[in-house]
């Protein structure tokens, strides 16, 4: 996938390269990564677009073609939905956003809470730790609720609406100024699906960070500057 992001790859193409049947490959890929091959490929294309926007002078149109989109409009819509801002704004703000928008409806009520403790490998090079609840295993778009921790330890995410969510987290090394770029020992974690009900308490959750692997879904959501701002002002969740 990584070597052919500009090509119109089909599941048949990828499965054939792996010498699997399409159906068996799709099942095994989803079992190992947690997402379908097509969804993973789409996420890789958006991740590469993020990198190109920050490291090259290519136009948005050229980047859209480079990562396999024939329509710049479709690319821009997909990018905005996944990252949280448009490609041009992502470049203009150097990969940062200034406010977290939560995917909560006004009539969802106060919500429940998810709590627990974050652990990480000894000696891990961590920055601020972002934890968010998302509808899929790909950290993209708007979390339903989130929090930021300065260090591993206890956490609580409040205002969680009823539903089925995945608890996803990541931490970028502090020396990287919170930016998600290549060749960094980013630490990630994932739990779920978690069933949240307003009439039943949620048991404390043990959440372990580990070094990101090639089969982990790419981190698409742009939250870096928000995390720094949240830490500075002790506001760890913002709604928009």
TrEMBL record:
PROSITE patterns: HTH_ARAC_FAMILY_1, HTH_ARAC_FAMILY_2. It comes from the Bacteria. Residues 1-93 form the HTH araC/xylS-type domain. Keywords: DNA-binding, Transcription, Transcription regulation. SMART domains: HTH_ARAC (SM00342). InterPro entries: Homeodomain-like_sf (IPR009057), HTH_AraC (IPR018060), HTH_AraC-typ_CS (IPR018062), Tscrpt_reg_AraC-type_HTH (IPR020449). Pfam families: HTH_18 (PF12833). This is AraC family transcriptional regulator. It comes from Streptomyces evansiae. The lineage of its organism: Bacteria, Bacillati, Actinomycetota, Actinomycetes, Kitasatosporales.
